[in-house]
């Protein structure tokens, strides 16, 4: 494993040291966990954006979409535990 020594501003270093103490871990372990969390979040965000762009392309290509009212009605019914049919996609092109 290679060594990396980030140069932290003093205020950030003090925040990290205090947080590490509070969690009962070493400053190194705290920073590794923080970097891991940030990297995983960035990966999830990128995946979310890719999925959204794919959905947008599919919607533009198909010309089909769900109305907000139909989706809300469906979601509320499911939240109440009701078994309801999924809404039908409708053409949004004229």
Care to describe what's here?
This is CopG family transcriptional regulator. By secondary structure, the protein is mostly helical. It contains 3 helices and 2 strands. α1 packs across α2 (27-62).
List keywords for this structure.
94 residues, mainly alpha, two-stranded antiparallel sheet, 2 strands, elongated
How many helices?
3
Radius of gyration: 23 Å
Main sheet, how many strands, which sense, barrel?
2 strands, antiparallel
Gap from first CA to last CA: 59 Å
The poorly predicted ranges are none
What percentage of the residues does DSSP assign to strands (E)?
A: under 5%
Seen as an oligomer or otherwise, the chain set is single chain
Averaging pLDDT over every residue, what do you get? 95
Helicity, as a percent range: 55-70%
Q: Name the shape in a single word.
A: elongated
SSE run:
HHEHE
Q: Give the class from helix and strand content and strand pairing.
A: mainly alpha
Strand order, largest beta sheet: 1-2
Count every beta strand, where a strand is a DSSP E run of 2 or more residues: 2
Q: Summed up, what is this model?
A:
The protein is mainly alpha-helical. It is 66% helix and 4% strand.
Secondary structure topology:
Blueprint: H1 10-23, H2 27-62, E1 64-65, H3 68-79, E2 90-91
Antiparallel strand pairs: 1-2
Helix pairs in contact: 1-2
């Amino acid at each position: 494993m290679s060594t990396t020594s980030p140069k932290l501003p003093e205020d950030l270093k003090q925040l990290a040291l205090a947080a590490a103490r509070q969690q009962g871990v070493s400053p190194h372990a705290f920073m590794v966990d923080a970097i891991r969390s940030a990297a995983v979040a960035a990966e999830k965000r990128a995946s979310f954006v890719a999925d959204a762009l794919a959905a947008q392309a599919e919607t533009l290509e198909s010309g089909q979409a769900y109305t907000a009212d139909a989706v809300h009605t469906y979601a509320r019914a499911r939240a109440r535990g009701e078994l309801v049919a999924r809404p039908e996609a409708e053409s949004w092109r004229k």
